[in-house]
Amino acid sequence: MDALNAIIDTNSKNEVSKRKISFSGKALITVTGGIGVTISLVAVAFVAPAFRRYCLPYVPATTEQIKNVLSILPTKEDTQKISKVLLDIGSGDGRIVFATANKGLTSHGVELNRWLVYYSRLKALKNGIKNAKFFQKDLWKYNISTYDYIVIFGVGQMMSDLEKKLVKEAKDSSKIIACRFPFPNLTPIKIIGTGVDTVWLYEIKRF
Ligand SMILES: C[S@@+](CC[C@H](N)C(=O)[O-])C[C@H]1O[C@@H](n2cnc3c(N)ncnc32)[C@H](O)[C@@H]1O
User: Residue 103: CB within 6 Å of ligand 1?
Assistant: First the structure.
């Protein structure tokens, strides 16, 4: 009888221990599942551009490319006298926006990927950069009519349609800076650099 009780006792202890394992298992599934979902949400934001009309992936500008863009812009002294507003189309991690804001321009970035926008906003906040702002929007629906300078580091396939948008919507005398890929029909007023770091400067003239 005692032996039977001992067996029952052992069995019920095993049952409790199984339940405990199953609870920690559930906790582990919840935590790993949560991490998995978060990683997927972040990854989706980076992969999503591949499924749009134009696949414009996140490729950050090189240091040389940024140097070439900056060489076109007015000096810090000039921007202190006359304020100029710049837009980086598809601003990625905000490096062009920050570099140009550092030159005294009011710099905006429009970016589809919310995580890159959060990252850029956090960086601006952390470094107390007040003249840099980021908007989470689709570049094709974004109002570009108020900008003095517009920077684009895009892909070759999108340049023709983007050219049409700029010619139609950008303000008169605004300057467009294209990185790596030129526009098919506009004539550049300046070309700076070579190879993948080449930058083309255009001016929108309507009158
Ligand atoms: C080649 S990267 C350039 C990043 C940044 N301008 C730089 O030079 O470092 C292009 C960026 O455009 C963003 N993008 C893609 N499609 C977009 C869209 N429809 N509207 C706004 N941004 C978009 C991508 O997420 C990516 O960050």
Answer: no
Q: For residue 150, report the phi and psi dihedrals to the nearest 5 degrees.
A: -130, 125
Residue among 145, 25, 59, 152 nearest 97 (CA) = 152
Question: Rounded to whole angstroms, how far apart are CA atoms 129 and 141?
Answer: 26
CATH architecture of the domain formed by 63-203:
3-Layer(aba) Sandwich (3.40)
Ligand 1 centroid – CA 75 distance (Å)? 26
Contact 112, 90 (CB under 8 A): yes
Neighbours of 188 (CB within 10 A): 16
Rounded distance, CA 97 to CA 88, Å? 6
Alpha-carbon distances, residue 200 vs 92, 99, 177, 195 (angstroms): 20, 18, 6, 12
Domain boundaries, the chain: 2-51, 63-203
Sign of the dihedral defined by the CA atoms of residues 76, 109, 184, 68, in that order: positive
Question: Which of these ranges, 58-67, 182-191, 198-207, has the smallest mean pLDDT?
Answer: 198-207
Nearest atom (ligand 1) to Cα of 66:
8
Position 30 confidence tier, pLDDT thresholds 50, 70, 90 = confident
